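Teaching assistant here, posting this on the class forum so everyone can see the example we discussed in section. The complex has two components, and the goal was to see what a joint structure prediction looks like when all of them are supplied at once.
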Amino acid sequence: MLETRNLSSGYGAITVLWDVNLTFRAGALTAIVGPNGAGKTTLLRTLTGLLPFSGEILMDGAPLKGKTWDLAVQGLVMVPEGRLVFRDMSVEENLCLGAYPERCRGDLSANLERMYAFFPRLKERRHQLAGSLSGGEAQMVAMGRGLMAKPRILLIDEPSLGLAPVIVNEVFDIIRRLKGEGTTIVLIEQNTRVALSVADDVHLMRSGKVILSEKAEGLDLDRLHDLYFAREGAKEGAGR
Amino acid sequence: MPVTSNASAQAAPAAASQRGRGALIGAGLLALALLPLVAGASPYMLGLLISALILAGLALSWALLGNLGGMVSFGHAAFFGVGAYGSALLAGKLGVPVLLAIPLGGLIATVFSLAMLPALRLSGPYFALAILAYAQIFRILATELDWLTGGAAGLQRYPGLPTVLGFNLADRAGSYVLVLACVVVFALVYMALRRSHVGTALRAIADSEDATRVVGVNATVLKTWMLLLSAFIAGVFGALNAHIIGFLEPDYAFSGIWSVMPIIAAVFGGYRSVLGPIFGAVVIYLFDQVIAKSLIPVGHQILLGIVLAIMVLLAPNGLSGLVARFLPRLAGRGLSNAEKGHA
């Protein structure tokens, strides 16, 4: 449903992404993995209209048009990196802000209850300031806020960043349940092990290029890691 | 924090009682505001209070832009002066009824604020500097375009406030009620706006603009609306003031005082709350005119600086923060939000 063709982008004169061709299937969870500086976050920022680009981004076959907020209204919603929550606002206000697009405002309370059913811990903390939450809870608020916008595609940037391993597992359990509900998810992740545990499709990026595209099932982890760390003898190639 | 735990403990049932309490506070404040009329304050005192309320309206418009729009303005004198000249010229030269000319003056200030739009891309100190420069342009324009504005000599022949239904708005009591009503109306608009989903989005924008964009908030448009609304309110109070005092000159209408005083008043009162800037303006203005002026006849503003510095050091959230800290039960939402935000 979402597709990039020869997508290049970057910051001013510096090109970070080089001719990226990717397909994100509807209802699937696509993981983009790769080391630091591979261009994963740049890809996400480009997809959500925060960076200018050359090439094409197609949603359901039609070129994607509009600024970031407009894309979100059309259903392309991002959960930003670093558990970016509005610290001076309560958990509930953070969540309600996710329902900003007009199509979400009608059933706000039902939408909220859905989130609290999904993240019971947030219900306990609904009136607490988001700035006072633990890392894992803040990540839940950030994801809940994105879900409140009723995304057609949810882009999640590096949800494991800076979280304790136990909490990472908890967050990924939630992502697995989200996927079970049929949400189309694009996941950016450095941690290949947890990413592969939930992914349907996997793309490996390095130095601004996609060097491997595979189904997650039956993927040779050694080969992925060889490519990931650019070890000697690793053969590049899209195995699709 | 007492306020926060209070809110979470009685979440749902609190809404109704809070509304009741809000109405109670509102009634109390209104009674307080009408007290000078009932108690028969001297014309001199009423005159001071009218000026204080004009400043309160200006401080409210400054705080709205600062709190909801996240923009620090050093140029509200521009909107205030344009509103004043706009309304005075409409009434004086075209014979527009004064009570219609006043909102139109606000509208003219809004139109002129459109020239500020390119500056919205600037953030923090850069926006503040741009608007500072912008305000100067109008003082010069008002001085140079003397075929329209009367130039440096000023403008005197335009009507004052009319009599409506036997109620003379031009006398002190009438003017006081009119200005008070305008302050109340704009305070209510501000409160409603802040409580709406747009208000939530605006508060979030101040925290992180990108994080609001990715859930569909058009941050630029919302900030633009805040600038336009702030300019409108400032323009209306400029117009009210013009028709009350009955003369205008560029150095007065576009005086830096109109840029600086609302900042002092709003910061002193607590610019993150709705009532803070209003009370800040009344307290600061009366302090300046009644106490500071008698102590130091020339250069009395220096005392304002000292008072403000003490306030910022002791209570960064201003008067409203103090009230919320010491009277958490009485404070209600309008006052306590500032404190909550910094819990």
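For the discussion questions: DSSP finds 17 helices and two strands in chain B. The first helix of chain B runs from residue 2 to 9. Think about how each of these relates to the inputs above.
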